[in-house]
Predict the 3D structure of the following.
Amino acid sequence: MNKNPVNGMRDISINEMNLRIFLLSELKDTYKKFGFNEIRTPICESISNLISNEGWENEKLIFKIQKRGEKLKKVLSNNEVKEEDLVDMGLRYDLTLPLCRYYANNKKDLPMPFKSLQCDYVYRADRPQLGRYREFMQCDIDIIGESSNLAEIDLILATSTFLKKIGFDKYKFYYEINDRKILKAIQNKIGFSDSEFQNICIIQDKYDKIGIQGVKEELLNSNFDNDLVLKYLDLLNDVNKMSLEELKKLLHDNIDVNVIENLLDIIEITKEFNIDVKFNPNLVRGMGYYTDTIYEIKTDNFNSSIGGGGRYNDLIKKYLNESIPAIGISIGFERIVNILLNDNYKIPDIEKELYCVENTLDRNSKLKVFKNAMKERDNNKIINIIKNSKNKRFQREGFEKLGYNKFLDC
């Protein structure tokens, strides 16, 4: 038997698990105070739901599940077998698509707007590397049915409240925000067509990894007009130095000015709560289902973002054939856990006491120990009852590493 976890997945230590449990508890407690309701969806989805054929990056990383039993035998009996004949399900690669299916299936029983909270594992057949796993926790909050920027502001306030609650404000986190309609307006102003928008965004989303020169080379090597590419990159550079008011004047013929006013509202209102939200015209976010506002949570202390999301106003339409506004944000739970572990983060003290029982204890004495332990547990203490080993010092050192700070010989 192989004692190691499957490649790209991992066992979690006791101390890390304690931190994860604490963070999830604080996160759920915070989000529920904002009116979010926790749901759960299956880890498997119909393969037809997971594959859109629209070039979404995560679709390349789907763990596909082979048909089983008689269905598989029937397929294998054919002379020519294609992959799509063998597969009927896949592991979810995010929580957004399952939420949309859930909403479409339960709409009549849900309030409008519906505020959803999901914390669960997702799976991507990615190349494993440090800090990147094939199984990882996502923590999403979403609002379905609210078209105004009340939703964006609510999501930013909720995530900021959680991050401040766990002390993450020491890293001076901030938000970068953009709107895909602004990206499309800039491209249209240069002369790109709407049909080219998605492919340009997929390349532009690699900016953080390959830099502006890498984006330029990929765009020039693709089937885009070279002159338009150069003009587009020059204009993006100019826009990067503009205020939103200046941008409104530049794009007034290409965009509804309310799109830019919407961003100004979000930035100015959240500023009143000491939250730093910055406009970034280079922000794209790679998922093809984003339609309007997009944002990421960043800190200058770390290279990668620690959260992000946006509006996906057309995704539920794939299930219900009606357009319903929807928006969400996901905290980078795994990244936050790693940052806090590396920083020796201390979970707020809960008294943890070890009752060390001698093997010779009689029944009445044991009963007394258990009664006392149950009483202390009612007082919110963690009481662990163990039998003394021969090497008490070594035994207790092991429990000290788990945060036990008091030892009682019984």
